[in-house]
């Protein structure tokens, strides 16, 4: 009997080894073409059920991750934030409410349209805002200065409003959000954007596409925005006799995470880290929360990343494929698959993967892309035809090909894994 068991085990091990060898040879052959010769490529593939690394090429090397960084931001939010987003902290003194910002990005946001703060303050005679409790600068380290009026470079702040952007569109009529800027919006022949040092906005005469233009956030702007809603009620103060400590909550955190990941929203990613820091201290600091997560929940990463922002907009970030697979594995083991997969863009169906990596009868890729000039990365979960879940990170840096050409090469590997493992 013992002999039969040993023989069976040897047979299983033999076929398993043969399958691993086949995977290694097939993928290696795919990336040994001239196409990959002058770029930096890293691939790490892990079978979570078998606890087995199926393929490793430069998995321990550091890459510019771009928006793959949002995977670490998602992990942080899931670990530290409660089920609903802490909108702000407050205290009440007779007819006055004192509010301290927590970094919640959803207030009057063009997508979420949350109005928790408005509902809370409308019945008070006076509102005192504390918004200087943040250490983060308006831009992250390594962000490109020329992107100041690009939708993906909205400023970070302790008390965001309207997503910290002016949203303009034209269908039947011109729509401007917040409305306070409608009369002062400049209509131009074609240019759209903002002056570098002032909240002077432009929109093309024949443009119809909804366009988000970052605002320069300041105390005076926030007062102006509130005066347009509740005139002469809101003031900004540096400190109060009563420390705001009661928390008001806004939307479910999963809604925030899903939006951030699906459309790769940089502003939401940055604010999620700031929000997470509010659970550690009254002083808001994305740097402090990144340090905390790396020293605690991610202390066992095989390669410690250089992690400088929440969005991946900075080229200072450095992550390895192994680190992403480790983080993705931690989430997979802790969070039910149905809930976890909803956060990620789905190949051929949603978000940044809507036009790529589609399945035949059903989706098989649930992953986060990361794109910067000359860089494209994808990390997430691949479900094979046999039902196995593979956790992978496929990173490409410093190429001169088109992004589409790189994605086509990646897709052949993913499809082969889907059909053969």
Provide a descriptive summary of the structure in words:
The chain is α+β, with helices and mostly antiparallel strands. It has two domains: 190 residues, Beta-lactamase; 203 residues, no CATH class. Strand 15 and strand 16 form a beta hairpin. Helix 2 packs antiparallel against helix 5 and helix 6 packs across helix 7. It is globular.
Proportion of residues in helical segments: 25-40%
DSSP summary, beta strand count: 16
Portion of residues in beta strands equals 15-25%
SS field, number of helical segments: 10
Give the ordered list of helices and strands: HEEHEEHEEEEEEEHEEHHHHHEEEH
**Largest sheet strand order:** 2-1-16-15-14
Q: Low-confidence parts lasting 5 or more residues at pLDDT below 50?
A: 7-15
Shape: globular
Structural domain tally: 2
Class derived from helix and strand content: alpha+beta
Summed over residues and divided by their number, the pLDDT gives a mean of: 94
What does the largest sheet look like?
Answer: 5 strands, antiparallel
Q: Ends: how far apart? A: 31 Å
Question: Over the alpha carbons, how many angstroms does the gyration radius reach?
Answer: 24 Å
């Amino acid at each position: 009997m013992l002999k039969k068991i040993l023989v069976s085990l040897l047979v299983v091990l033999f076929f398993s080894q043969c399958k691993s060898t086949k995977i290694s040879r097939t993928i290696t052959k795919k990336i040994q073409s001239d196409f990959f010769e002058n770029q930096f490529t890293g691939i790490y593939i892990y079978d979570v059920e078998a606890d087995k690394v199926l393929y490793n090429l430069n998995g321990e090397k550091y890459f510019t991750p771009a928006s793959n960084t949002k995977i670490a931001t998602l992990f942080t939010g899931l670990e530290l934030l409660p089920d609903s987003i802490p909108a702000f902290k407050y205290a009440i003194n007779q007819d006055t409410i004192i509010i301290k910002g927590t970094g919640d990005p959803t207030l009057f946001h063009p997508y979420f349209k949350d109005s928790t703060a408005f509902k809370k303050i409308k019945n008070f005679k006076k509102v005192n805002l504390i918004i200087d409790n943040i250490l983060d600068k308006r831009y992250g380290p390594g962000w490109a200065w020329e992107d100041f009026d690009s939708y993906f470079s909205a400023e970070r702040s302790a008390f965001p409003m309207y997503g910290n952007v002016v949203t303009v569109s034209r269908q039947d009529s011109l729509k401007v959000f917040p409305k306070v800027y409608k009369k002062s919006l400049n209509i131009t022949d074609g240019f759209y954007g903002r002056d570098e040092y002032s909240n002077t906005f432009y929109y093309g005469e024949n443009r119809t596409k909804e366009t988000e233009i970052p605002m320069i956030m300041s105390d005076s702007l926030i007062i102006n925005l509130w005066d347009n809603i509740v005139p002469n009620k809101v003031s900004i103060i540096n400190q109060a006799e009563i420390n705001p400590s009661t928390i008001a909550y806004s939307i479910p955190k999963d809604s925030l995470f899903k939006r951030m990941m699906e459309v790769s929203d940089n502003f939401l990613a940055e604010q999620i880290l700031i929000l997470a820091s509010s659970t550690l201290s009254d002083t808001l600091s994305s740097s402090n929360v990144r340090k905390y997560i790396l020293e605690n929940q991610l202390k066992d990463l095989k390669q410690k990343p250089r992690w400088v922002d929440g969005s991946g907009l900075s080229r200072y970030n450095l992550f390895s494929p192994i680190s992403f697979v480790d983080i993705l594995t931690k989430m997979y083991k802790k969070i039910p698959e149905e809930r976890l997969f909803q956060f990620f863009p789905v190949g051929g169906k949603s978000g940044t993967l809507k036009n790529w990596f589609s399945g035949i009868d059903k989706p098989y890729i649930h992953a986060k892309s990361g794109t910067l000039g000359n860089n494209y990365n994808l990390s997430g979960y691949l479900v094979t035809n046999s039902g196995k879940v593979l956790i992978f990170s496929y990173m490409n840096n410093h190429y001169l090909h088109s992004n589409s050409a790189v994605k086509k090469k990646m897709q052949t590997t993913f499809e082969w894994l889907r059909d053969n493992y």
